[in-house]
Design goal:
The protein is mainly beta and 504 residues long. The chain contains 5 helices and 22 strands. The strands form 3 sheets. The chain has an 18-stranded antiparallel β-barrel. The chain is globular and about 70 Å long.
């Protein structure tokens, strides 16, 4: 065990920020946290490790240190606007885990590292950056269907309009935001696989309107790559999937079926599936602002192919509603103040029906969410679901729930979810989440009877200084049911943030 590696990450960040102090505005910030986990079994309960950007180890007991440094953009209303507005962030994670045989394992992760430039409304950034794709409450949601904060971010280059940009000649009643990205799946099981991502969203209503409607679509594709398990397979040409730019443009970007259903670059399987593993959601949301509360109602409708886009898999999707307190946290002297409540239902049982192809039907069924024949670990990154954590990889399930060799052997479920955030004595933040789900396995290998799962967690964060820069927190959670190993556990931690100053 090399303890200096675990401490040097924090020390370097603290020394770096001390050299950046000047007089103007707080743009730089160093953060660090130390956390310990202790469950009743060898697995940390579900809601302690889900939606943590892959930073919380699933095995336990464990200890880990996080340290980061970031520089924020200069705000648009700043007195001095820089010629080049840029941002930067890096965060590392040092983990020490006790395995089942009693040995200690140590690993280091670069969990976030990116740099970005802004040119007016346009942003260009590159690196590993946590992000949520789709209309959803980003703080308390169970997880966006397409891309959530569950897995380690995929390295990519993205050009985007990160905020809604009003269309001026419509008197700001219509605004648009969009993104286009190219990324790299640097995963062990397949080499040189790539990510394509694009999205466009529109907002109807002025920025300050009481009522706004938002709608849009996002589209992700895993494509290209080579692997030994594909050699000799009808799914690839000599073990390799096409990386041709023309194929990328026509079938990955534009989602067109190739005219030729097989050539020296790709097989008929690739042609029929528009090259690669496609998925995404069509989203719609409604925002209602009231004097004392804000409401956000949203729906994400998933698609794997044309059957999903045409609604053949209704009622599948994520349905959510968020209530947010409109009062400031300092208003009144209430001992307990509700800040935010989120309720969601996730349904993935339809999948356009149990049959992939039936005579007389032009649309394919059995969408088999998150799984794919060419990419044996499906819509995952380094072993974790890229989308909602409620569709769980097979190796995290109990032995009885592993009904097939699919990476996501249980992808047909319906789940109810509730999350809350409140303020106690205007200083202590209390948050909690609970989910109850019924699982049917998959169409490939259904469960003989529904498998039930209950998971819950509660977290308390308490500042130890007036400026809230130093915090201690404790989170307790439990898993009860037959899908996941029964476990109860806790995480305790300490976090500090040190702002730096720099000249504009």
């Amino acid at each position: 065990m090399h303890k200096p590696y675990l401490s040097s990450l924090l020390l370097c960040s603290l020394l770096t920020v001390s050299e950046l102090r000047a007089q103007a505005v707080n743009l730089w910030e160093t953060s660090a946290s130390v956390q310990l986990s202790a469950p009743t079994g060898q697995t940390l309960p579900f809601w302690l490790r889900a939606n943590q950007s892959g930073t919380v180890p699933g095995q336990a007991p464990a200890a880990w240190l996080q340290a980061g440094l970031k520089k924020a953009y200069v705000q648009r209303d700043s007195a001095r606007r820089p010629r080049i507005n840029w941002t930067f962030a890096v965060q590392g994670n040092g983990v020490l885990v006790k395995t089942g045989d009693g040995t200690l394992q140590q690993r280091l992760q670069l969990t976030s590292a990116f740099a970005g430039l802004r040119f007016g409304k346009l942003e260009l950034w590159a690196g590993r950056r946590p992000q949520v794709v789709g209309l959803v409450d980003t703080l308390l949601s169970s997880g966006s269907y397409a891309v959530s904060l569950n897995a380690l971010p995929i390295p990519q280059v993205q050009l985007c309009l990160p905020d809604y940009v009003p269309v001026g000649w419509l008197n700001d009643r219509l605004a648009v935001k969009a993104a286009y990205a190219h990324g790299w799946f640097n995963v062990p099981y397949i080499q040189e696989s790539k990510l394509h991502y694009k999205s466009v969203y529109v907002r109807f209503g002025k920025p300050a309107s009481r009522l706004q409607v938002q709608a849009g679509i996002n589209h992700q594709v895993q494509w290209g790559g080579s692997a030994g398990y594909l050699t000799g397979s009808p799914l690839a040409v000599n073990g390799r999937l096409t990386s041709n730019f023309g194929d990328y443009w026509r079938s990955v970007v534009l989602s067109l079926i190739p005219r030729d259903l097989g050539n020296p670059r790709y097989t008929s399987f690739d042609a029929a599936n528009r090259i690669g593993n496609h998925l995404g959601t069509v989203d719609v949301g409604l925002i209602l602002r009231r004097p004392l509360a804000n409401w956000f109602v949203y729906h994400q409708h998933p698609f794997d192919d044309a059957s999903g886009l045409s609604g053949r898999n209704i009622p599948d999707g994520l349905y959510g509603v968020r209530w947010q307190n409109g009062r400031s946290s300092a208003a009144g002297k209430a001992v307990w103040q509700w800040r935010r409540i989120v309720g969601e239902v996730l349904s993935t049982k339809s999948q356009s029906g149990p049959y992939f192809s039936r005579p007389g039907r032009s649309y394919k069924g059995a969408d088999n969410y998150y799984n794919h024949s060419q990419y044996i670990e499906g819509w995952s990154y380094l072993g974790q679901s890229l989308g909602t954590p409620l569709i769980i990889p097979r190796y995290d399930l109990t032995a009885a729930a592993q009904q097939s060799d699919l990476f996501f052997s249980d992808n047909r479920l319906i789940a109810g979810y509730l999350a809350i955030e409140a303020l106690f004595r205007q200083r202590i933040t209390v948050s909690g989440r609970v989910s109850y789900s019924s699982h049917a396995g998959s169409y490939v290998s259904p469960y003989p009877k529904p498998v039930r799962q209950f998971s819950a967690a509660i977290q308390v964060v308490m500042p130890v200084t007036q400026a809230n820069r130093n915090q201690v927190y404790i989170a307790v959670a439990t898993d009860q049911g037959n899908l996941l190993a029964r476990s109860t556990g806790a995480i305790i931690g300490f976090q500090t943030r040190l702002p730096g100053r720099t000249r504009l």
